[in-house]
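Why do we bother with holo predictions? Because pocket geometry can differ from the apo form. Keep that in mind while you read this record for aspartic acid.
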Amino acid sequence: MRAIIVHGGAGDAKRTEEIPERVDFVKKVANYGFDLLKSGLNAVEVAVRVVKMLEDHPLFDAGRGSYLNEEGFVEMDAGIMDGSTLSIGAVAGIKRLKNPIELARLVMEKSHHNILIGDGAEKFALENGLEFVPPYYFYTDRIIKIFEGTYGDTVGAVVLDGNKIVSAVSTGGTPKKHVGRVGDSPIVGSGFYANSEFGAVSTGIGEDIMKVILSFRISLYYPNYSISDAVKKCIDDLSGINGHGGLIALDKNGNIGYSFNTKGMFFAYMKDGQDTVVGGF
Ligand code: ASP
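The structure, written out:
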């Protein structure tokens, strides 16, 4: 069984004019990822490629479209986990890289560490030949216009390639965050988690998500509950602490779970024997 679920953030989507394009794009990304799976690529490769596609799109809060912090520059976070080996790679406070998810993957595959931050993380990127971009790459008209924006456009993917489950996440964090703030996204268990049974990725207010360890929280309920019900219970728990966010997941059999307590969440999934399903606002 091969399956993929991707999301483009949970939130209140104040910028309603952007909704159709964002829904379409998330669907396109899920289809692209599934084609890659069918072509035989493994789940790590697919997860990184689809997250990169979302990072390169200016409408999502990751990579190019990252929200600016209080001082007007980006500090991006990303994480990836291979459920078959429990290998983890995460980065935080990235200012100059085009695709933070590539660096998270490098940390997972080529370093002896799980998390690298700031200058040290960028040094590792440089040593490994990743692509750097100048600050103005991030100053799109949209991002300048919505400097007073809302939360909710982080991107993530969970991929099952028939053997293993991989979860990947990337974000610019919350708008106008304090310099140095790290959200849930690079924190294993909160922003992302995968093992041999299920994989999950969270989005929403990182400070809330960490309190309930949202992605790993599924293991409190799954497999006693289906993955779909387990995810719903996790979001109920998030609501229970007045937290806001969304969660996507899939299990080793390709069953899908998604839930959110924000006004909406952009997501799309596809699996063997089933056409793309899109959800949104
Ligand atoms: N969870 C992300 C953070 O708090 C933001 C988001 O999902 O939109 O950094």
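Helices lie at 19-38, 43-56, 100-110, 118-127, 141-145, 206-212, 214-221, 227-240.
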